[in-house]
Amino acid sequence: TSLEYELLLSLARARGRVKSREQILDDIAGRDYDVYDRSIDVHISALRQKLGDNPKDPTYIRTVRSVGYMMVKQ
């Protein structure tokens, strides 16, 4: 979806750095999305499935508990 693309772009631009859910929401603000803090988790999960990423052993997107997400630097 276009929202997943925006999420991926947000994380890719900050590759190797943790982005909080709030920062991710700020990045996609102004788009026509009705997104709330925890819904980011649902969209990240869908994005991981499409990328074939395992959240327990991430290749692309790592969860940083109680903080947010980061694109794994490769």
From TrEMBL:
Any one GO molecular-function label of the UniProt entry: DNA binding
Keywords (alphabetical) are: DNA-binding
The record's annotation in InterPro entries points to: OmpR/PhoB-type_DNA-bd, Sig_transdc_resp-reg_C-effctor, WH-like_DNA-bd_sf
Q: Pfam families per the record?
A: Trans_reg_C
Location of the OmpR/PhoB-type domain: 1-73
Q: Enumerate the Gene3D superfamilies for this protein.
A: Winged helix-like DNA-binding domain superfamily/Winged helix DNA-binding domain (1.10.10.10)
Any one Gene Ontology BP term: regulation of DNA-templated transcription
- Is DNA-binding among this UniProt entry's keywords? yes
Residues annotated as coiled-coil are none
This chain belongs to the protein called OmpR/PhoB-type domain-containing protein
Per the UniProt entry, what species is this protein from, by scientific name?
Answer: marine metagenome
